[in-house]
Amino acid sequence: MGLRKDCIILLLLVLMLIMAGCAGERKSEEKQEQKEVPPAIKEIEGVLLSIMQQADLIPATEKLSGQSQTNSGSKEGNQEKGKPVKELTYEDTLLGELLKAEGFEVEEQKLPQSTDIIWDGINKSIARLYSQWNDLEPLLKESESVSQAEIAQFEEGLDNLTVFSSEQNYFATMTAANQLTGNLANLMASFADNKVIPLYKLKFHLRSIVLQAATDDYSGAQESLDYIKGQKPVLTQSLDENELRALELSLEDLQRVLDKQNLELVILNASIVMGNTARVIEKSSFS
After folding, report:
1. Using CA atoms, how far apart are residues 238 and 232, in angstroms rounded to an integer?
2. How far does the chain reach from its first CA to its final CA, in angstroms?
3. CATH code of the domain in which 199 resides
4. 164 located within any domain
């Protein structure tokens, strides 16, 4: 009887050890399966935002250059030359307010006196993009979650960005850089949480709304807004009740001003939606 009892106890101990071992293996596997975002993805997004910010300064710089020639030597002209970029508002730039809202840090610098300085900076940024893409592409080709078509789309977009920059077409440069952020969101599938990826696509569409409104393409802007609204079922997985309500209300306001076809109001309200989106991303593991 005592022997049988000892055997039962021993058997229970063995079973407990086996179960503990299995649990440990599962935790180890889960840890290994946690997605790590390659630094190149974050770096590429940062450079693309920088290119948009730089290109967005072109009209303000051209305006300043004209004023400087008119007011050469005057106190007003000298003050305009020293205007910090951070002091520019939605009346001066298209994407400045949105970039601030999503957390892009504008350097402490004054508005350049020549557009040549800006284009030189943009070209250097594009050269960095090619280097970063060279690091990222091999990782993407090893992934089963990214298609060759998506990789080809990014490469085509990078070529377009280079061409527009060489032509010194500031608006096309901004649009191409923004399009690449949309392409980049599609490439995140292997590295980012599926709950986070839609938020990055939202940021792309918010910038698109402003760029389309700037060319009076309000039907295109509406399509982008409709896409954002259509993501509500997916967003409920990423947002808590208060965050979702705040986003819904800001989208309603954006729809209202989009119906008015007023660019300045669109910029301001799109920036509010961007801020709500950026705060959620900041809480995620991908931020």
Report:
1. 10
2. 62
3. 1.20.120
4. yes
Domain that holds residue 150: 37-191
pLDDT of 145 > 70? The answer is: yes
Count of domains for the chain: 2
Name the 3-class secondary structure at 56: coil
Asked if residue 278 is part of any domain, the answer here is yes
What is the average per-residue pLDDT within 192-196? 71
Residue 170 and residue 243 in one domain:
no
Angle at 177 (CA atoms; ends 234, 179), nearest 5 degrees: 40
User: Are both 224 and 137 inside the same structural domain?
Assistant: no
The verdict on 114 and 198 lying in the same domain is no
Chain CA centroid to CA 279, Å: 13
What pLDDT is stored for residue 236 in this prediction? 81
Structure tokens at 126: 């594009």
Tokens standing for 46?
Answer: 């940062």
Q: Kindly indicate the confidence band of residue 20, based on its pLDDT and cuts at 50, 70 and 90.
A: low
**Same-domain check for residues 70 and 198:** no
**Residues ≥6 apart with Cβ < 8 Å to 126:** 51, 161, 162, 165
Residue 167: predicted pLDDT: 97
Contacts 24+ apart (CB under 8 A), 189-192: 189/143, 189/145, 189/146, 190/35, 190/139, 190/140, 190/143, 190/144, 190/145, 190/146, 191/35, 191/36, 191/37, 191/38, 191/41, 192/35, 192/37, 192/286
The structure tokens listed for 222 are: 């509406």
Are 89 and 134 in the same domain?
A: yes
Contacting residues for 228 by C-beta, under 8 A, at least 6 apart:
202, 205, 206, 251, 273
Q: Do 128 and 259 belong to one domain?
A: no
Calculate the CA dihedral of residues 130, 132, 137, 142 and round it to 10 degrees. Answer: 170
Same structural domain, 201 and 170: no
